[in-house]
Specification:
28% of the residues lie in helices and 28% in strands. By secondary structure, it is of the alpha+beta class. The strands form two sheets. Strands 8-7-6-5-11-10-9 form a seven-stranded antiparallel sheet, sandwiched between helices. The protein has a four-stranded mixed sheet with strand order 2-1-4-3, covered by helices on one side. The chain is elongated, with a radius of gyration of 27 Å. It holds the Pfam family ubiquitin. InterPro entries: UBFD1, UBFD1_C, Ubiquitin-like_dom, Ubiquitin-like_domsf. This is Ubiquitin domain-containing protein UBFD1-like isoform X2.
Length: 260
């Protein structure tokens, strides 16, 4: 016959077991009861059928859209009755069952395509690399530099270091000769690369490296390469970067001391 102490222990164990089982059941019911909403995501003429928790945020939806489209969340603009805000839930945004969610944005490959060298350029770059020839003398860069300083280029200052200005850096050009504008959105850890056609929002942590060299004869300006992918072939080249802002750009993108 069980003693009173043993009986109490048995009852305690039974009580704890009931509580654990109730907790597990409660969690399971919460998952089952989580309201889902079905809708379509439309991106570049592609349509995706999506079922997603109605009370999840737009930021969470962007993560899911990244798996579908390859567009990083930082580069997405999600339209739900206007531009959707990351911190809002789908319910807050007023998303309706069966509606279309429009997504605008570019993959990293799209960004690089604007600046990707031709096979001929790659051969030239490979041929000049072993000699450690300055960037400005390499044929793939020289043909851009030889066009001269753009008329609307910001003034450069040789042997000077300044903080980033409160306005975008403009008047620079990329390898195709198109105008480039750099806007540093430090509050969201993004670099906006603007061209005439579009503005790409690139997360700072996705930029693997930043290199630069002064342009001979115009040392107040630099050639700068932003490495947007895992290899050097993914460098996005920018010309006529004012020398006084080069260190500040590297600090902002890579974090101080990381580029040495």
């Amino acid at each position: 016959m069980a003693s009173d102490g043993e009986a109490n222990n048995t009852e305690g164990c039974s009580s704890n077991g009931d509580l654990l089982e109730a907790s597990v059941c409660s969690s399971a019911k919460a998952e089952i009861l989580k309201e889902m909403i079905d809708f379509k995501v439309v991106y570049n003429k592609q349509k995706f059928d999506v079922s997603f928790p109605y009370d999840e945020t737009v930021g969470s939806l962007k993560q899911h859209i990244h798996t579908l489209t390859g567009v990083p969340p930082a580069m997405q603009k999600v339209m739900i009755k206007g531009l959707a805000k990351d911190e809002k839930t789908l319910r807050d945004q007023g998303l309706l069952k069966g509606s279309k969610v429009m997504v605008v944005g570019s993959t990293l490959n799209d960004v690089l395509a604007v600046n990707t060298p031709t096979k001929h350029d790659q051969k030239e770059e490979k041929a000049t690399t072993p000699t450690k020839e300055p960037l400005c003398r390499q044929k793939i860069h020289k043909k851009v530099i030889d066009k001269g300083v753009p008329d609307d280029c910001m003034p450069g200052i040789k042997n000077a270091k300044e903080s980033l200005p409160p306005f975008p850096l403009s008047g620079m050009v990329n390898k195709s000769g198109g105008k480039v504008r750099l806007t540093f959105k430090l509050e969201v850890d993004q670099l906006w690369i603007g061209t005439k056609e579009r503005t790409e929002k690139v997360g700072m942590n996705s930029i693997k490296n930043v290199i630069s060299e002064p342009i001979e004869g115009h040392e107040e300006y630099h050639v700068m390469g932003l490495q947007l992918g895992p290899t050097e072939a993914s460098r996005y080249w920018i010309y006529w970067v004012p020398a006084q802002y080069v260190d500040a750009i590297k600090d902002a993108v890579l974090g101080k001391w990381q580029y040495f």
